[in-house]
Amino acid sequence: MRRALDVGGRPKLWKRPVTFETFIRTILEQQVSLSSAWSTHSKLKQACPNKRVSPKAVRTLGQDGLRQLGFSRQKARYADTLAAECLAGRFPIRHLADKEDDQVREQITSQLGLGDWSADMILMLSLCRSDVFPVGDLALVNGAVDLGDESLRDRETLLQRSQDWRPFRSVATRMIWAYYLQSRKKKIPGT
Questions:
Q1: Exposed e or buried b per residue across 38-66, where buried means at least 16 C-beta atoms within 10 angstroms of its C-beta
Q2: Which of 8, 32, 58, 158 could make a disulfide contact with 178, Cβ separation 3.0–4.6 Å?
Q3: How far apart are CA 137 and CA 91, in angstroms?
Q4: How many other C-beta atoms lie within 10 A of the C-beta of residue 88?
Q5: Is the dihedral of CA 90, 78, 103, 167 positive or negative?
């Protein structure tokens, strides 16, 4: 971790609000570059009334409208379904902050298209929970491999290594992200 700190510097506290828009942004960031996700997110904001990404605005656009903005077929379906769930009151985002990590994860992963990685991002970046380790995050894995050894590509090996950083694995993750970004001269779009 010393090398991560030396190269990446003090990690930034990237924080996102606990909102529907953050969930949509998280959906967009799944398995694509952050630049690509940011571009589609920007188009979505422009298409929404008052540039406010809300469940009603997403439902109004519908899956076809979302696809015209750059959403994949799957992500358009996920976003539209999430909007419907929020409007029906079955997924009350504002109450997530009051729940334990396991309860938050269960509620998030019960939604179509939102898995453990999405739950990790919300827990860490929006709810600021201290001991989240998104083992499925490619930047985390690649950064950890660069800092350690190739064996850290294995999920179980990486999880085992992360035990040393408890109960502050979110800090360790941010340090590895900062190292990864700096070592590759990358920036997070929109920050």
A1: bbbbeebbebbeeeebbbebbbebebebb
A2: 8
A3: 25
A4: 9
A5: negative
Q: How many residues does the chain have?
A: 191
Q: What percent of the chain has pLDDT over 70?
A: 97
* CA 118 to chain CA centroid, nearest Å: 5
Q: Is 110 strand, coil or helix?
A: coil
Query: For the whole model, what pTM was predicted?
Result: 0.91
Phi/psi of residue 71, each to 5°?
Answer: -70, 140
Task: Supply φ then ψ for residue 186, to 5 degrees.
Answer: -105, 155
Contact 12, 191 (CB under 8 A): yes
Backbone angles phi, psi at 52, to 5 degrees: -110, 115
* Per-residue pLDDT tens digits for 86-109: 999 999 999 999 999 999 999 999
Percentages helix, strand, coil for the chain, rounded to the nearest 5?
A: 70, 0, 30
* Spatial contact of 96 and 18, defined as CB atoms under 8 Å apart: yes
Q: 34-47 vs 20-29: helix axis angle to the nearest 10?
A: 140
